[in-house]
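Hi L., both proteins are below.
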Amino acid sequence: MSEKRPVRPLPVGAYRWLHLGFVATFTVLLATGLLIQLPDWRARLVGGYAWWVSSIHEWSGFAMALLPVIALLRTPRQAIATFARRARRRNQMRMHAAHLVFTSVSAAVFTVTGFVLWFENWSLANLPKWVADLSPVVHFYEALLATLAIIVW
């Protein structure tokens, strides 16, 4: 009979690197997203359309979506155990658990709507038109909500 060893949560250092990655990519996404949404600012700051602003935004979004995947691939049992342990802390850290769930749901919404926007031709050809029409609106308001949540939390 083999004895099951308890799964240790992610080391604090790994958790901090993951969090730092989210902070860095979110900051870049917020700055480039504002420049995309406010073309007058973009024209003043970078001199016109500047395709690289959109490109940086798209690749930063991809990096942000990739961070939890890397954590899951490197240490799957530890990452899942950490997520489950932190999400269950209702009495001690109710706000932390809410933050974790909100972050996870927001990341999923950003990833789906971001890919619909990034691959617009594919989306229009393979998804209902309302998905392509709704994605920019949902993406924008989710960004607004996430920014406000970060300011409040």
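That was the first. Here is the second:
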Amino acid sequence: MPEYLEEFENYFDLIDAAELKDKRVCDLGCGKGRWSYFLKDKCREMVLVDFSDAIFEARKTLACNDNIFYFMGDIQDIPFRDGFADFLFCLGVLHHMAVEPLNSVRKLKKFAPVILSISITPWTTGCGILRLFYLGFLWSGRLFVVSSPLVSE
């Protein structure tokens, strides 16, 4: 998965990977594990969760690592205790849910003190122009929202 390195570096530029050394990291909506691939050797333990069969692809891709746990499940109803992770990330997933991405992040904050979430969300201007916005959320005691227009029609 080295082909995703540049994209990974762009998404995770807010995170100091060295600080994850003794931490449990959770990848919600992990898909085939393309982001976990780059973090697997930088943290103590990883928890990967996905609703689809892609979780089995992630297990194949990351099979050489014994510090990774795989769960097939709904990220809107994850069965973990509050504070189970030190860092949680959810990239390109929450905009597929039936609720607003910001509300989803608020629900997830009980599971980890630091959350990184990036979503693409449609937004209609007062003129009826549809734009897609890249929304980035980093929760670390406070919520930072960063948005930039990607597409305008």
